[in-house]
Amino acid sequence: MRYLRLYLYFLRFSISRALEFRIDFFFRILMDFLYYSVNIALYKILFLHTPTLAGWTEAQAMVFVGAYLFVDALNMTIFSNNLWWFPIFVNRGDLDYYLVRPISSLFFLSLRDFAANSFVNLLMALAILSWALSQYPGTFTLSQLFLFFLLLLNGTFLYYILHMLFLIPVFWTHSTRGFDRIFHGVSQIMERPDGIFVGWSRKIVTTLLPFALIASFPTRSLFEAFSWDILIHIFFITTLFFMILLFLWGFALRFYSSASS
Amino acid sequence: MIEVKNLKKTFRVHEKEPGLQGSIHSLFRRQWIKKEALRDVSLAVKPGEILGLLGANGAGKTTLVKVLAGIIYPDSGFVKVLGHVPWQRENQFRKQIALIMGQKAQLWWDLPAADCFLLLREIYQVPPLQYRKTLDFLSASLGVKDLLKIQIRRLSLGERMKMELIAALLHQPKVVFLDEPTIGLDFTSQRAIRDFLLQYREEHQAAMILTSHYMEDIESLCERIVIIRQGKFVYDGPLAQIADQCRQEKVISVTFSGENYEKNIPFLLEGKGSILSQSNEILKLRIPREQVPQVASHLLQNFPVIDLAISEDEIATIIESIFRGEERGEEK
To answer: Does A135 touch chain B (CB under 8 A)?
Structure first.
């Protein structure tokens, strides 16, 4: 409850700050509009050559595109600004004030800056997802839709956890962007249907680098019979990775050297 | 309130030869050197005490403050602040301390101070009534009541620092760490901040540790000082004792008429003092007070002296000489 109230403060600050920079505001919308168009076009073109892709029809693939764009927009809005600054903070010794406050430093650092700029993009992504869902020939039950969105929220959280895990080595390497780049490379797995991964690669993208669980599995829950196994697997992996993050966070702080003033 | 025993902290830093070649070399084979930031230091601070922490840049002042505030982990040693081990960072501990760093801002640049204070109120869970009272008191005594609604970045450096102080003290901490709180401020602001810190100490019996490069800060705030050199405490005691010392010794500056006087100095001193500085024509000596007349007359009689002046050492000079590690009588 207290953390919720704190978050409302972060929201208020971020929004009042974002409104001061109008050019940035519109630029961001334009950028993401292009990014969304490219993603939709990519799958549209693929389906000119094949009727199904990894078991999905074009309509299903469009729901998937809508799903990962939605996760991406959510992530941009809630986490990405904070995570962008995080390695810089570590290197510059700017973690000091976060560490002396009587609240979780990980919470504070991960959520303090809400990207109000991206909020419009979040609405755009939501519109794309709604459009994709509505043009699907079949119908969905309400509980299916509820589970789908719940899993997408979980996917957003999992995406944040994975991103953070890739950034934590900065405590030792002091390389500001190195691991961030690797993450952005690897994270593209989430934009591929999980059906294309078989054998070993499938094991990896569902356990070690569980990017398939972010958007692809949730989308699958709309078209396939509901399976407890998959659901438990998703929540188990998310919880496990979160515990690892908490542990690593505590561990990494021991090596924080707080660059001297 | 603060207890430190045998505290040690080393940093590992790598050395690099200058230039591109050095960079390539260090990419494959890194020369790590250990930098001992704190070597076996012990300390105790009582409630209501303001301890001045003095030392040259890189002597280990900030490292000590950061260990005490729980930001960095020491290698070994015993530390208790308010009964807590700082680096375990329990909320109960963090609610009772405050850290102010003159070089690092804690307030949100784009927001008015009043907004930042509200967030801090929530973080520290200060009851609304107490918050109002504390904020009124703090902003009135620092004279910044009218500035609370102005964006931080539109404030002057001095005003900003006052806001930082308010931000740090809103939750009425029992232990306050001040790392160069008056750096870069003009004289009036420095004084306002000093007076205010004394007032806060009176009212809350808070323990404070202050690092500063300004002697004025130290002289007006601290009864006790610790001088730290290369990670070791070289002096821990009352400031007054050092002040006494400068009254016990005087500095004699002599200007000669260009003649070679150097070989006679050892004879001249004979255990009566030390050389502060010496150039071709000007010699500065530090002499015990009772010896001053004797040495002065000796100089005047035996050397071609153009000018001779006798003055007192300033505390700052004495402390600086301790920083540099000059041997000075009874100090360890």
So the answer is: no
